[in-house]
Specification:
The structure holds two protein chains of two kinds. Chain A has helices at about 5-20, 70-75, 130-140, 200-210, 265-275, 330-335; strands at about 1-5, 30-40, 40-45, 50-60, 60-65, 65-70, 85-90, 95-100, 105-110, 125-130, 160-165, 165-175, 175-185, 195-200, 215-225, 225-230, 235-240, 260-265, 285-290, 295-300, 305-315, 320-325, 340-345, 355-360, 370-375, 375-379. By secondary structure, chain A is an alpha+beta fold. In chain A, helix 1 packs across helix 2 (about 70-75). Chain A is elongated, with a radius of gyration of 25 Å. Chain B is α+β, with helices and mostly antiparallel strands. Helices cover about 40% and strands about 25% of the residues of chain B. Chain B has a five-stranded mixed beta sheet with strand order 5-6-1-7-8. Chain B has a four-stranded antiparallel beta sheet with strand order 9-12-10-11, with helices on one face. In chain B, helix 7 links the parallel strand 7 and strand 8 (about 160-165). The model of chain B has no long low-confidence stretch (mean pLDDT about 90). Classes of the chains: A alpha+beta, B alpha+beta. The interface of A and B includes residues 150, 282, 375 and 376 of A. Strand 26 of chain A pairs antiparallel with strand 13 (about 345-350) of chain B.
């Protein structure tokens, strides 16, 4: 191949796909970034077999072809190139020459034939999600999943994406808390229902990749055990987790009668302070509300760390009083990913799940967000 | 004020439980042992000991010594259950109760006089209560520290009660062979014998500096103190175990994946029984699989929250099993399930998808009716 690219386009292409570079060296080819000429474009591609990222950028193509460059060097190099407008790439026998202003680099190449065939969407998209809403859906759910080290059961390491009734629900849980985000989906076929389980850390990579691009919508394709997200020049593919996600709707409390309406940021700050006094093993803080009173006591105590007691003013008095303990971290995780001025924490009993949702002037970023959190029973 | 420490040692515990559960075995030589070709004796009843059978002896040898003995495989679930009954009795006298094994425990009675009366009387009461309430015989020792309590119960075996008051310590110790002292191993005893020291009285005559020149500064001091019955090791309630596990070596290697999985569930529940009995929560689940060729693999997960829920722990153990690829042609010789990162159950993180009360109920049913009363079937997802 022989092509000239704008330096920023080269950097963008490399940066984008480098999120899928295989870290392990069992298959050395996975450490490479494949460049392929496609008409007046160059496609960058990388994969670790769990996910694949492709990204196209405009180029002046003089000779067609493909080459696989060593990913680590190239992704570091593109950030250090001299600030000239264009970069020329040319395949030689066993190298690819990269020329950039006064600099010339000769990069060893990996065999393009060995690079795995990447999965490709062949059908029409299932639907389209506005880019900002997809990003927010990932940001408000992926954190709630289990880490791979915390389970052998892959289901809970994923985010379940359920397409239904013109929308998509993203749901993730670690078995003790559950984050749900509903976003609108355009062009979803009538009465279509389908659920796809995607690894939460891969979705976080998708978030990183898509945060850097300009596009209105993300088109979603699914087939053959894969899900593809296409936005602007980027196509991001992920292998689906072939396991049954738990029936999460079942555990969403339907009519918790006690609503604690709280100023979100103040509550968050209080929890962050109180958490420091919680017992290390449980991380539990106690919330105490009294009927017809706007005073919420937030407290924690542990032998090692001491005691704390803080009062947060509720926006309005709850119907009933309650005393309930939560792992502070679980509440903080959700509150800090919300934007609204208020939240409502709906409770029923000290041993029943609480439901957290945005309240007051609900920020657009919080539309469709729900968070279920199991309490801690202190013995 | 001096300390009062009590030591309880259940007599021929496993064999006694078998004789309790099977009245027809009473008075007969009962040997609880691994029955496979590689098995060893766990406990022999006093009737069997008369034939020279003792614990840790290969089962094959025990069969030669006592061909008419009744050989039984151990039922640890049942022993654990009986041990917990004993522990409950002991706990009712002092929260400072330290189980050493299934059949042994220390209780610190210091300062319980106001509640329960003089320790000598408590020791007597415990010595009577345990057989009455469990049907099992025990030896009880009472002394001013753990060392003396243990030596007293040894002296009381089987079935007796021995109290060593502080002023009796030196006389009590004098005739004992040095290896009876806790912490004097066979090597140390052999070196002492080489120097002509056989009894504690003889040991006591050696100066501290000479002992230190023989056994080092620390080792010499330990011997010097032991020979005088000095020991200030505290009784640590529910000794914070680092891990709990159950393992089984199978008489014949297992090949059927369903059977292997069922075994992992069964072992998981046995572990959870103990986690619950000791009032603990676990945050790490481990499994161990040994193949026919003795290669052994272990796998473990760190759970998001500490738990004692039988379903959560069993499912995780089964999940770990799925990560072990059994090599072609190999069977499973041994399976083990363990938990670690244990902490006292001072709180309970309630799970979203598993019923917390169900977890407790499973434990209670197994405790009340025995582990065989309730087992876990596969979820069908595997």
């Amino acid at each position: 191949m022989n092509a000239t690219l704008r330096r920023e386009d080269l950097e963008f292409g490399v940066r984008t796909v480098s999120h899928a570079l295989g870290g392990r060296t069992a298959m050395p080819i996975l450490s490479g970034i494949k460049l392929t000429t496609l008409g007046e474009e160059v496609e960058f591609a990388a994969t670790d077999l769990e996910k694949a990222i492709r990204c196209r950028v405009p180029a002046q193509v003089r000779a067609r072809g493909a080459t696989v460059l060593p990913g680590q060097v190239v992704s570091q190099l593109v950030g250090r190139l001299p600030e000239v407008p264009e970069v020329e790439l040319e395949s030689l026998d066993a190298q690819t020459r990269l020329r950039c202003g006064p600099s010339t680099f000769e990069l060893p190449v990996l065999s393009a034939e060995e690079f795995p065939q990447l999965p490709e969407p062949t059908t029409d998209p299932l639907g389209r999600i506005p880019l900002p809403q997809l990003l927010q859906a990932i940001a408000q759910t992926a954190f709630a999943a289990l880490k791979a080290s915390e389970t052998t059961r892959l289901a809970l390491t994923g985010v379940d994406i359920v397409f239904k009734e013109g929308g998509a629900k993203f749901a993730a849980t670690n078995g003790y808390r559950l984050a749900i985000k509903r976003v609108p989906v355009s062009d979803l076929p009538d009465r279509y229902e389908g659920a796809f389980l995607v690894d939460a850390s891969i979705l976080s990579d998708l978030h990183r990749v898509l945060s850097g691009i300009v596009a209105d919508y993300v088109s979603i394709y699914t087939e053959a055990g894969q899900i593809h997200f296409q936005a602007g020049p980027v196509l991001f593919s992920a292998r689906l987790i072939q396991e049954q996600f738990p029936d999460f709707e079942r555990v969403v409390p339907k009519d918790n009668p006690i609503g604690l309406f709280l100023p979100r940021e103040e509550f968050l700050e209080t929890l962050r302070r109180t958490e420091l006094f919680a017992a290390e093993e449980s991380g539990a803080v106690t919330l105490r509300a009294t009927a017809q009173s706007t005073t919420l006591e937030v407290s924690a105590a542990s032998r090692e760390r001491g005691k704390s007691l803080e009062v947060v003013e509720l926006v309005r008095p709850p119907a009933r009083g309650i005393e309930i303990a939560f792992k502070a971290e679980y509440l903080i995780d959700a509150l800090r990913r919300m934007e609204s001025d208020q939240v409502a924490l709906w409770l029923s009993a000290p041993e029943r799940a609480g439901l957290l949702e945005p309240a007051g002037n609900i920020a657009p970023e919080d539309e469709g967000f729900l968070y279920v959190c199991m309490p801690v029973r202190l013995l | 004020m001096g300390r009062w420490i009590l030591h309880v040692d259940m007599d021929a515990f496993y064999a006694a439980v078998e004789q309790l559960d099977h009245p027809e075995l009473r008075g007969k030589p009962v040997i609880v042992a691994g029955l496979g070709p590689r098995g060893v004796v766990a406990t022999a009843s006093y009737e069997a000991r008369a034939f020279g059978v003792h614990s840790a002896m290969p089962t094959a040898q025990a069969r030669r010594l006592c061909p008419h003995g009744v050989f039984l495989p151990p039922r640890f679930e049942r022993y654990e259950e009986m041990a917990e009954k004993v522990r409950a009795i002991l706990r009712s006298y002092s929260p400072l109760m330290e189980p050493i094994s299934l059949d042994e425990a220390f209780v610190d009675l210091t300062g319980t006089e106001l509640l329960h009366g003089p320790p000598e009387r408590v020791a007597q009461e415990i010595h009577e209560r345990i057989p009455k309430e469990t049907g099992l015989s025990c030896s009880v020792g009472l002394g001013p520290n753990k060392l003396m309590a243990k030596l007293a119960s040894d002296a009381a075996k089987p079935g007796g009660l021995r109290i060593v008051r502080p002023e009796e310590v030196l006389d009590f110790l004098a005739p004992l062979p040095v290896e009876d002292l806790w912490g004097v191993g066979p090597k140390t005893a052999a070196r002492l014998r080489e120097k002509g020291i056989h009894t504690v009285a003889e040991l006591r005559e050696v100066s501290l500096s000479l002992l230190q020149s023989w056994f080092g500064r620390k080792g010499g001091e330990v011997l010097w103190r032991l020979s005088r019955g000095l020991d200030d090791d505290p009784v640590v309630p529910t000794r914070p175990a680092k891990s709990l596990s159950h393992e089984t070596t199978y008489p014949e290697d297992l090949f059927d994946p369903q059977e292997i999985e069922a075994e992992v569930r069964r072992l998981s529940l046995l572990v959870v029984d103990r986690v619950q009995a000791q009032g603990l929560l676990a945050q790490t689940v481990q499994i161990k699989v040994r193949f026919s060729d003795f290669t052994t693999v272990t796998r473990q997960t760190h759970l998001p929250e500490p738990t004692d829920h039988p379903l959560l722990i069993a499912e995780e153990a089964v999940g770990l099993l799925a990560r072990v690829s059994i090599p072609e042609g190999q069977g499973v010789r041994l399976l083990g399930v363990g938990v670690a990162e244990l902490s006292p159950a001072r709180f309970r993180a309630l799970p979203l998808f598993a019923d917390d009360r169900l977890g407790q109920t499973i434990g209670e049913i197994r405790k009340k009716y025995g582990p065989q009363a309730l087992d876990l079937a596969g979820s069908g997802q595997n």
